[in-house]
Amino acid sequence: MAQETMAREGGPGDPADAGAAVTGAPPPSRVRRLPWPRMLLAAAGGVLLYLAFPPIDWWPLAPAGIALLTLSLRGLRPRRAAWIGMLGGLVFFFPMFPWTRPIGEDAWVFLSVFESLYFLLQGIAVALVTRLRCWPPYVAAVWVLQELVRGNWPYDGFPWARVAFSQTESPYTPFAALGGAPLVTFATALSGALLAWAAVRLAPAVTGALRGARGAEAAGDAAGAGNGAPEATAEPARRAAGTPYRWAALAVLGAVVVPALAVAVPRPGAPGRERTVNIGVIQGNVPGHGMYFLGDEPAIVLRNHANKTHEMAAAVRAGRLPRPDLVIWPENSTDIDPYKDRGAYEIIDAAVRDIGVPVMVGAVVHLDDGVHRQTRSIVWNPGTGPGPVYNKKKLVPFGEFVPMRALLEKIFERISLVGRESLAGTTSGAIRQGPVLIGAVNCYEVAFDDAVRDTVRDGGTPLAVQTNNATYSFTSLPPQQTAMSKLRAVEHNRAIVTAATTGISALVDPDGTVRWQTRERVPDMRVDSIPVRTETTIATRVGAVPEWVLTLIGVGAIVFAALRSRRETAAGGAA
């Protein structure tokens, strides 16, 4: 009986594995040929999932891709599930991360392969939980688990390319206001798993129907020659044959209902008389490209942003732009430490005095220990100079700090381009800038749930995302980062102002709508009225609770499925 159960669920009791259980050798089919149908399903799933992300942004393909990835794994033993999962990851991550190629082709290959290792582990987990009854929610929970681990380990993780970031303009988006990015991932993956479940239920029925049609034709021929078959058996057979179709239809309906439920998510509305603040955005551009975006001369990047601010001040005086209450410069908008260099200090101070309002300046400052630096947001006030600061908490591995530096410097010369090791900040980004308690978020941090959430909880509104994408101009990184800002806006009911050195700078309303955005590699500026929301969403209040609940469901399903598989295998061996 155990053997029959495992075969039905696609486990080690499959006929293909029966010979191996007796002889101890792998089945001949596994030696002679690769599982091409599984491999094609995994590869197709990876491609569809990639196409759901910016810049392609075909969001409906995410559930479809997850469905194919699930089908490629269901019924496999752990070893085969591991490398099929890895294949799906490679096909997904390689086209996701070509923006790392300006750093080096080896960086692109390493990151894509390393991130695919999480899909390897996920493949084993999905193969296990799909042996359980009603497995679609468990598959979705495994996706949340995979993204939790990938986003936190190692070195604070790398939460790029989460399923939720493909759903920033989709029916799944409102789930962000209820459970953040993890719930959006769960809902999207649940739809995909339900589609896979429908295919599993439908495939045998379709195959059986085709075989039955051929058998009925043969029986009809025989009946024509004899007395025929009793009609009494035909109707029950037809009813039994229709059951899989009904289950499949219900699963497909469920896949559609899941995003439809998002309309019921409670979201704070705009108050009757909403407070607003005029915010100016400066995109100054840079002289160089790739790893050498700063160019050959010092202070060019700083002068670009200062000059654009003088231009904004002139436009305000001429009445071409409204007067801002504050201005946001990008991350690394000064390429020289203004605390150490008097010339840089005076360039910034002159621009700030000209515009006459506080300016948030992005700088890399050198600490007095002579060894470390910090990526810092500085509120520069007219007349008094530098004031409140926020030091970036989430640092980019191999960009702002280098793990195992002594070893890697001997292998890769370009490690020296990182310069001083960065130290992470310890406080949230909620800092006073003029009339508001602005929420500073530095570049890479927008991908991290806790970094943004902590800033909002400490009163930051609106959010200012300072970013420097100069190394990655005209790649998929800027639109992917913009998508993250759109999801964060919905998640926390906050307007988001993004200032980028080379683009994409943008203004995002609390509903995730992009009001304005720049082209890349051109200087630009904007002053606009931005809502100052203070009402919080459920997601902001409950924090990581939904993620941990879903993760525990996924872990529990994996453990239960693994233990049951072991018991049934042992029982089958004893029989």
How many individual helices? 17
On the 0-100 scale, what is the average pLDDT? 89
The portion of residues forming beta strands comes to 5-15%
The low-confidence parts are: 1-26
Description:
With 575 residues, the chain is α/β, with parallel strands linked by helices. It is 50% helix and 13% strand. The protein is built from 17 helices and 13 strands. The strands form two sheets. Strands 1, 2, 3, 4, 5, 6 and 13 form a seven-stranded mixed β-sheet that branches. The longest helix is centred in the middle third of the chain and has 50 residues, at 176-225. The protein is globular and about 85 Å long. Residues 1-26 have low confidence and may be disordered.
Short description:
It is built from 17 helices and 13 strands.
